[in-house]
Write a structure and sequence with these properties.
Layout (H helix, E strand, L loop, with lengths): L8 E5 L4 H12 L3 E6 L2 H11 L6 E5 L5 H11 L4 E4 L14 H10 L1 H18 L2 E6 L12 H21 L4 E8 L5 H15 L20 H12 L10 E4 L8
Parallel strand pairs: 1-2, 1-4, 2-3, 4-5, 5-6, 6-7
Helix pairs in contact: 1-8, 3-5, 4-5, 5-6
Length: about 260
């Protein structure tokens, strides 16, 4: 199926690794022009080298998106895009008594406020342009509150509400805003979170694998599976989708 993305320019934050890189691959494979953003220029260069095999136009931009000024500079430097994929984030595992307030603020600056601010900046431009799409990659625990991931589950819940509220209005300007909630996905990031959860729940971060038990299909999701959903739903083929967040968890939330 042609996803009609070959004439689209796509900006992906956190695009040098994990789900973000897989999303970049999916769009590049469809012929879209892709801009990936991350903190580390070397990792961005390595990611670009891997993506150029698809024959698409690949740009990189190094920025710390935890900083409001960096978000504003990104929007000015990159210019117009057809699709924004908010993906950058690193909220730690742990409970309310083990995570400092400073750590909460640091984590939310990148993911929660980063998503909100970039959506604001690019939505203004898309409104003027008469169209566009914003995809927020959030996380399944936003719907399943967890003591041992309280900073992340609270941040994700707020982003779900934000996405639904903005996406219900943005259609008035021909802009779609929706989200995707991946369950645990096979990336380095999922191990970091699981270690924090294991420390909080079991008192031993090395027992992190126990936090990932009872998974549907007996495994974690693959980054490419999440990326395929993002590309398909961001395409014109799914043009009536906005103001909602899709759970990609294979029913995990209802498993006991």
């Amino acid at each position: 199926m042609d996803l009609q993305l070959s004439d689209k320019r796509v900006l992906i934050t956190g695009g040098s690794k994990g789900i973000g890189f897989a999303v970049a691959q999916a769009f590049a494979a469809e012929g879209a022009s892709v801009v990936i953003v991350g903190r580390d220029p070397e990792k961005l260069d390595a990611a670009k080298a891997r993506l150029t095999g698809h024959g698409a136009t690949i740009e990189t931009h190094a920025a710390d998106l935890a900083m409001p000024q960096s978000r504003e500079e990104l929007a000015e430097t990159i210019g117009p895009v057809d699709i924004l994929v908010n993906n950058a984030g690193a909220i730690p595992g742990g409970d309310l008594l083990t995570l400092s307030m400073e750590r909460w603020i640091e984590a939310w600056q990148l993911k929660v406020f980063g998503y909100i601010h970039l959506t604001q900046l690019f939505l203004k431009r898309m409104k003027v342009a008469g169209g566009g799409t914003v995809v927020n990659i959030i996380g399944d625990l936003g719907r399943s509150p967890r003591w041992d991931y309280v900073c992340g589950t609270t941040g994700n819940a707020s982003l779900i509400a934000f996405t639904e509220a903005v996406g219900a209005k943005s259609v008035d300007w021909n802009v779609r805003v929706f989200g995707v909630n991946p369950a645990g996905t096979r990336t380095d990031r999922v191990v970091e979170v699981a270690r924090g959860q294991a420390q909080s729940t079991l008192g031993d971060p090395d027992r992190w694998a126990e936090m990932l038990a009872n998974r549907p299909f007996g495994r974690l999701a693959e980054p490419e599976e999440i990326a395929s959903v993002v590309a398909m739903l961001a395409s014109p083929r799914a043009g009536y989708l906005s103001g909602t967040v899709i759970d990609v968890d294979a029913g995990l939330r209802n498993r006991k």
